[in-house]
Amino acid sequence: MSADVMTRPAVLILLGPPGAGKGTQARMLQEKYGLVQLSTGDLLRAAVAAGTEAGKQAKAVMDAGGLVSDEIVIAILKDRMNDADCKNGVILDGFPRTTVQAKALDALLASTGQRINAAISLQVNDEAMVERISGRSTCAGCGEGYHDTFKPPLPGDTCAKCGGTELTRRADDRAETVASRLEAYHAQTAPLITYYGDAGVLQTVDAMAEINRVATQMSSVVETVLH
Fold first, then answer.
1. What pTM was estimated for this model as a whole?
2. Which residues make Cβ contacts (< 8 Å) with residue 109, sequence separation at least 6?
3. Of 97, 115, 161, 169, which one is the catalytic site residue?
């Protein structure tokens, strides 16, 4: 392998169900290592707003109520990874979701002399995740967050910050909804775990640990692949 290929920007993939803390950990890695978090939704919105060729194609599909094809997503990702701020490496959050997408991503990276340096799986306990997410609520007045078990409001569902008494819960945070999303995630992602395990790039971290302990695990993985 040439020195040029070895110094190509690193590519990390985060695998984990909703609520596992991927976004939080990605932001911490961005700040610590200068990596750029790339999520599919943000990429699509930015490409559409910028009016790129791939963005125009994506907008036409979305305006028609369709799903943006893997080819368009890959084209948008390729454009974004060429931007100067990605020179230190990127963290892919939400892509790939299938082995077909993973293979397309491998082909894209091979064309630029890059590769997947690590696919980091944030492992969770499903029952604990349901409790963690379904217990969340937010003060309608000031936005302060609460949790039935870990950070309860004052008596009478009173916000400790502003004194408001109206707490709201997201529909997506209902226990049955969370359980269904976890089941779908495991069914969809299990093949990716196998795929990246076979490729020798899979790393796992305990996402049920305290945030800073998870961050320490993540940093250990990143430092291994960056040096």
1. 0.82
2. 11, 115, 116
3. 97
